[in-house]
Amino acid sequence: MNTFVKSIKSLGSPKTAIIGMVALGVGSVMSYGNPESVSAWYLAGPLAFLAVSLLVAITTNSRIYRRGGLLVFHVGLLSIAVLAAVGRLTFFEAHVEMLEGNVFGVEDTLNVKKGPLHSDDLHHIEFVQGRYTVEYHPGMVRGLTHSYVRVKGDDGSWQDKVVGDDRPLVIDGYRFYTSFNKGFAPVLTWKGIDGSSMQGAVHMPSYPLFEHKQENDWTTPTGETVRLWLRMDTGLDEKNAWILNEKTPESTLVVFVGDSRIELRPGETAAVGGGDLTYDHLATWMGYKIFYDPTLHALFGASMLSVLGLFIHFRRKFSLQPLRAADPVGGRVPVADDPRPTTGRVV
Amino acid sequence: MMDGHATELPWLWAGLAAYALATFAAFRSVQVAHARSAGAMAVRGQENAVLTLLVVGVALLTISLAERWIRIGHGPFVNLFELIVSQLFSLGLVYVVAYWRFPVLRPTSVVVLPILWVLGLWVLVLEPTAVPNPPTYFNNWKWAHVGFGKFFLAFCLIGTGFAGIVLLRRVKRLAPYLRVLPDDDVLDNHAWRFMLLALVFESLMLIAGAVWAQDAWGRYWAWDPLETSAFINWLALGMALHIRFTYRVPTLWSSAAIVGLFVFAFFTYFGFPFYSEAAHKGVV
Ligand code: HEM
Fold first, then answer.
1. What residue ranges in A202-306 does DSSP mark as E strands?
2. Which residue of B has its CA nearest to A135?
């Protein structure tokens, strides 16, 4: 065998595999907790190395390709490595805060992270946010979320769906999960002296996480910045179970303009910064996590196939040498299909 | 402070007492096997005692788990107390079935049962506080993930039982008691077979966990403490199997590696939840 073939083959040797596994182990330790400072190469490097090593082993090492179970297992491992890489190149992750009654728009997405080959198909997604309920157990422990949405199907019809933390809304492979991040938003109408009118909502910080900081700044169309504080009267006792929904608070909107302070109840209007500001009503907003990875199902299939291969390999070993046959106390028992290097000691 | 309504506790204590008696009977069986005058019948008698006591122990722990489940309205998945009781139950159950079906592994009880007792002692100092299910724990993949994990740890424990005997034989005072068992090579081979089976179930546990994580937290893998530890454990097991068939590893080292892998798995299970008080707390 010439040296070139030999060195290619050695790439697929179990010794090389051990080196690759040690490197992957180091990469995993470094990736613990997903620190931003650690390059993705700490994982991608060892995985690429292992993938090449596996490919060579599968094609050149008869101890793998002659044994069905082991072959399926190692091919499965190779597929997982390749799919994980494709997944990293094409994934998409983001957050979005959806106001009750509003339609999803790509431009509202925040903290977007995506792979270089992601094909940005979010434009087709159409759904409208409805109300939600979040169960709380005694002691402010969050339970199930039910977020009601209306989704536009391919045929143009609208369908009602319920989304939760672990029941994503899946549209074209994009998965929307509700999150702890949700809250209230006063809906305001502004009427300028010139007759112009606009309606909008100001998202208050996440509730009940920032219960005591329900405030935000808003700049009027005339350029004046006002501070809005949502004074909540929930009558909540943290020791009891309760349900968060749009009915939870009795609210008063406190508007700070310069030195003055104005209190508005829903439906009330006040003159603010060259116009009339009406506090229409209190709406809710829900924060979603968006996740897209086109390889999810294939990854699942490849992993299950791998385990099946490993199990077949195990069965074969077991049937060659059942444990029960090794019963005789004190006896030297022949050990069939022992893959270890023969030492003369083990038959 | 003791929770006054924890009606499951007497059943738990009774179950632990049965495990303790089984441990005692296990030591007796090895002692009887060692006494040259004793016949095979005497050994079988002791082994039957171990078997019966373990069955009783598992039954009592089942009642304890059921009682608590009904009392607090959810299964033993959330805090460390629940995790340990449920492992005491499942490790005991898998072990007792293996003990009954494969007489060859019966002597491993002198290693396995004391390990169960470490968990038993630990649970005695924990409070049986009830914590509600986090919102992500209503997913059905939880069952698969937890179930596969239980088999993984149980097979790892059996492997450790064999490896433990190989190691205990190195202790001069104990060696004579363990002499009648098969050679180290044979025990080592049995041990690794269970470790291979453990790898099958650990892989399934990771897959089911990833599917659950995708549903629960919107990502299938994020290198959280438990995920990282479980993955490294999986990799280390695969690596150990590779090293074993690539190099001539002396049985002493091979057995030590198994014990090491078990200890690693033990900390993955009970170490991280111990520090965070709820499995995967970082993302709840
Ligand atoms: C990356 C490159 C890899 C190569 C080149 C490779 C190569 C091999 C070879 C040649 C065998 C057959 C051993 C024999 O019986 O002679 C084998 C078996 C095996 N491999 Fe791999 N492998 C790789 C990765 C992995 C990984 C990542 C794992 C799992 C963590 C793994 C787990 C196993 C298992 C469980 C066996 C069966 C061991 C036994 O029967 O005791 N391999 N591998």
1. 215-219, 225-233, 242-244, 250-257, 260-264, 269-272, 275-292
2. B135
